[in-house]
Design a protein that fits this description.
The protein is of the alpha/beta class. The chain has 2 domains: 166 residues, Rossmann fold (3-Layer(aba) Sandwich); 256 residues, Rossmann fold (3-Layer(aba) Sandwich), CATH 3.40.50. The protein contains 18 helices and 15 strands. Strands 1-4-5-15-10-11-14 form a 7-stranded mixed beta sheet, sandwiched between helices. The protein has a 4-stranded parallel beta sheet with strand order 8-7-6-9, with helices on both faces. Strand 12 and strand 13 form a beta hairpin. Helix 9 packs antiparallel against helix 10. The structure holds pyridoxal-5'-phosphate.
């Protein structure tokens, strides 16, 4: 075989036409999502009060391994997919490593991240159901941006509750969302009951994803023809994101590339879950599979230091209960810049896979070492990565350096989930040597754990 190209693209014909539902293959299904009122498993009907009907169905689907991607969604995908699988020749050279490093780059669309993969699916099902509007939350702004693009395309109204910390640090994110026609409200806000309550209790809070979710859900259930959509954590989102891993595997197989190590950053678990699932199917079937690593921020160490327990998905405790790794729904992480990773919980699917040892390892890394890796990556590979994605870069670099020490020629694939153009304040702070690390103490984590309901 001739030299592997820098970028491996698939043709339009090679694009997957179905998503893969890893849940259908799991040895142990994740514990059911519970109605917080009755403590009984939620039904499709109950979920349909919050989510679109088809998405509620997907959320509870344990049977179908593959689900057709609607033509309309495929058409949208074709505008920016397939995303390239890139050989990081220049980074390899810089690290002087015998390892082969590849990244699946999801940042080449305007929203700058993988989130568009699920946004367009969710907006499509909302439109198909005859809804007129959607509400959502956004942390760092990537999900809100992706969803505003999708809502503009399908002609839906959109209200975005944006974590206040991010809204202040990233004014241009707001402008992008408004360009696509969305209404952006910094959270917590006085536009909802739950927002007013949180503001009363913690007037100086910089907000959290959990809190923004509470506000968006409240507006969705009190506004006619409106539903709530979520950009991570949920099974339906992991399902849509499976396109990342399916494409990766097709592209890799074309060139006889088999990853020994697969790495992704984990906030709510959707980009990692999506990248991993096409390979996880082999692991679950007892076949050869990569070593899977989830990377999270040391400031929000859900998998590495959290509890595996039923918890609320939001601060306001209005959402159903999910059994997952959690720091407690009241946990508000320090204002680190990787906003997309500031979530107290983790996808129930990923949590279960981790608990059962199929997701091999979770690693927590500090933000300054992530920015160091991000800058190194930008200067060698040319792409300015999102701070979230930098977590994956950091661990890919570490693994490649280990290969150098040991003289091992491993193949590493990591998810480059997005670009960091809206995070320049954080990069500036890093360059100015002003960025600090924050690792919560056991006592601080205990505070969060106290809020986990005793079932
Ligand atoms: C939102 C986001 C993440 C984290 O979310 P996951 O659901 O864990 O994927 C990671 N990277 C980028 C670029 C994001 O926008």
């Amino acid at each position: 075989m001739s030299r592997i190209p820098y970028k491996i693209y698939l043709s339009e014909e090679e694009l997957p036409r179905q998503w893969y539902n890893v849940r259908a293959d799991m040895k142990t299904d994740h514990a059911p999502i519970l109605n917080p009122g009755t403590l009984k498993p939620v039904t499709e009907e109950e979920l349909s009060g919050i989510f679109c009907e088809e998405l509620a169905r997907q959320e509870l689907n344990t049977k179908d391994r593959f689900i057709d991607i609607p033509e309309e969604v495929q058409d949208f995908y074709k505008m920016y997919r397939p995303s390239p699988l890139v050989r990081a020749y220049c980074l390899e050279k810089e690290l002087d490593t015998p390892a082969h490093i590849y990244y699946k780059f999801e940042g080449s669309n305007t929203s700058g991240s993988h989130k568009l993969n699920s946004a367009v699916a969710q907006a499509y099902y909302a439109k198909k159901q005859g809804l007129t509007g959607l509400t959502t939350e956004t942390g760092a702004g990537q999900w809100g941006t992706a969803l505003s693009m999708a809502c503009a395309y399908f002609g839906l109204d959109l209200k975005v509750y944006m974590v206040k910390n991010s809204a202040e640090k990233k004014p241009y994110r707001k402008a992008v969302m408004e360009t696509y026609g969305a209404q952006v409200i910094p959270s917590p806000s006085d536009t909802t009951e739950v927002g007013r309550k949180i503001l009363q209790e913690m007037p100086d809070t910089t907000g959290s994803l959990g809190c923004a979710i509470s506000e968006a859900v409240e507006v969705a259930v009190t506004t006619p023809n409106t539903r709530y959509v979520l950009g991570s954590v949920l099974n339906q989102v992991l399902l849509h994101q499976s396109i990342i891993g399916l494409e990766t595997k097709i592209a890799a197989e074309k060139y006889d590339i088999f990853p020994d190590i697969l790495i992704g950053c984990a906030g709510g678990g959707s980009n990692l879950g999506g990248l991993m699932s096409a390979y996880m199917t082999d692991r679950l079937a007892g076949k050869k599979s990569p070593y899977f690593i989830a990377v999270e921020p040391a400031s929000c160490p859900t998998l590495t230091r959290g509890k595996f327990a039923y918890d609320f998905c939001d601060t306001g405790k209005v959402t159903p209960l999910a059994k997952m790794y959690t720091l407690g729904s009241g946990f508000i992480p320090s204002g680190i810049h990787a906003g997309g990773l500031r979530y107290h919980g983790m996808s129930p699917i990923l949590s279960q896979l981790y608990h059962d040892g199929f997701l091999d390892e979770a690693r927590a890394v500090k933000q300054t070492e992530c920015f160091e890796a991000a800058v190194r990556f930008a200067r060698t590979e040319g792409i300015l990565p999102a701070p979230e994605s930098s977590h994956a870069i950091k661990v890919a670099v570490d693994e490649a350096l280990k290969c150098r020490e040991r003289g091992e020629k491993k193949t590493i694939i990591f998810g480059l989930s997005g670009t960091g153009y809206f995070d320049m304040m954080a990069f500036q702070e890093y360059i100015n040597d002003e960025l600090v690390d924050y690792v919560p103490s056991d006592e601080e984590l205990e505070q969060g754990f106290k809020g986990i309901p005793q079932l």
